[in-house]
Amino acid sequence: MTQKHFTDERWSDYVRGLSPAPDAAAIHQHLEAGCEPCERSFRFWTIVAEVANSEAQNEVSEGQVRISRSAYLSWWRGRMLPQRATMARLLFDSMLAPLPAGVRGHGPSSRRILGRAGQWSLDLRFEPSPGKHLFLVGQILGPESAQSHKTGFPVLLMSPDALVAETTANQFGEFQLQLQRANGLRIYADVPGRRPIGMSLPDLQSPLPPEDTPVP
Ligand SMILES: [Zn+2]
Question: Where are the domains of the chain?
């Protein structure tokens, strides 16, 4: 049995807010269920609608398409990403518990955080960096089937109201970021064609554990 998706016509109406209410509800529910092909369709038709909208007003230029794409990106990141992400739960924080035997630490002054969301795992290591900064070395890994393992994907660090830092994970899901110590940060993996993965980071304002001083 093949799963029922939606026609282009219905998408086009949906992204422009023209769907009849039951139809909009059905599409919304289907997206919420995490259908990947429809997630892609949704993103695609949203861009199309924005470009079409600017075309309707005047001749569309390449610049406008670019602006429309960046408007789309900032809308997606600011509004949709936080709403649509599957949030990982915290499995481990070296600030709260010592590393289990067999798990390699990276020096006493680093902090390691592990999280999990379904088949996705997040491994984040925070190192001190000059000033009020931290250096984050991370890896976000999904199921073997994830397309991200061929292409890499954007990794975004967001405060409640702004994008704080952005980078691209490589094909192994590895990435590095520099950030300011802050509270209320969230990290997101915006994996193409999938529901984004997110995780709320614990308080990063408190200092990392001090370097061990050898007992004489
Ligand atoms: Zn679908």
Answer: 8-84, 86-200
